[in-house]
């Protein structure tokens, strides 16, 4: 009941696959272009399509800390989720200016936030609802290089003791990672999780991609 328009697709999902599409120019010349993603269910059926909006200056000089707006549309072309990332610091030495991501659904209405938490060793984030109340934690590994395997960011309860899901960066092979910088992620969460929080988890996945896997050699 009272689901934001378009989020009914997420209502029965406990697994979400995010696949980055690679532009021909980027694949051949290594030129960074605006990111485009397909968001699929566990059967590989596309439920959303996402496009990153920012300037060439941001992509060239500010990546991977660049600001962006990602517009997520359903298969009818209706924008249902908007992810907004301001330009923030990406260093544990600046705890006052860490990452914060805003997720809207429908566009213009806050669904929740992803807030980076300061930690000298581990990637840590808090998932918040529209009222900025803490809901979940995301804790990554000490090293995100992967070394020919998947990299898992665990989704935990607020006490950080109980794991309820994960965001995984799938290793997709040497050629893809080095030459095309493609990304494939999986999100696993409880099926009964609030669909607004599921939308925020998609935003968290984009943030993790930009922060830790934007470099084409990451994920090997």
UniProtKB/TrEMBL annotation:
Keywords: Calcium, Lipoprotein, Palmitate
Presence of the UniProt keyword Secreted in the record: no
Cofactor(s) annotated in UniProt: Ca(2+)
Coiled coil start-end: none
UniProt xrefs under InterPro entries: Scramblase
Gene Ontology terms for molecular function: phospholipid scramblase activity
A Pfam family this chain is assigned to: Scramblase
Keyword Lipoprotein found: yes
Protein function: May mediate accelerated ATP-independent bidirectional transbilayer migration of phospholipids upon binding calcium ions that results in a loss of phospholipid asymmetry in the plasma membrane.
Family designation: Belongs to the phospholipid scramblase family.
Name recorded for this polypeptide: Phospholipid scramblase
Native source species: Gymnorhina tibicen
Record lineage: Eukaryota, Metazoa, Chordata, Craniata, Vertebrata
């Amino acid at each position: 009941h009272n689901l934001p328009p378009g989020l009914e697709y997420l209502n029965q999902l406990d697994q979400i696959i995010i696949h980055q599409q690679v532009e021909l120019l980027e694949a051949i010349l290594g030129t960074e272009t605006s990111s485009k993603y397909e968001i699929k269910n566990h059967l590989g059926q596309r439920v959303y399509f996402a496009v990153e909006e920012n300037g060439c200056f941001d992509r060239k000089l500010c990546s991977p800390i660049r600001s962006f707006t990602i517009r997520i549309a359903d298969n009818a072309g209706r924008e249902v989720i908007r992810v907004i990332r301001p330009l923030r610091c990406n260093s544990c030495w600046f705890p006052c200016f860490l990452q914060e991501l805003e997720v809207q659904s429908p566009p213009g209405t806050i669904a929740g936030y992803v807030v980076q938490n300061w930690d000298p060793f581990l990637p840590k984030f808090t998932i918040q609802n529209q009222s900025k109340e803490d809901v979940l934690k995301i804790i990554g590994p000490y090293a995100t290089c992967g070394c020919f395997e998947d990299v898992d960011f665990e989704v935990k309860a607020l006490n950080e003791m109980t794991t309820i899901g994960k965001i995984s960066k799938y290793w997709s092979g040497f050629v893809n990672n080095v030459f095309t910088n493609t990304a494939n992620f999986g999100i696993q969460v409880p099926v009964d999780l609030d669909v607004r929080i599921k939308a925020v988890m998609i935003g968290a996945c984009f943030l993790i991609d930009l922060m830790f896997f934007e470099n084409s050699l990451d994920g090997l």
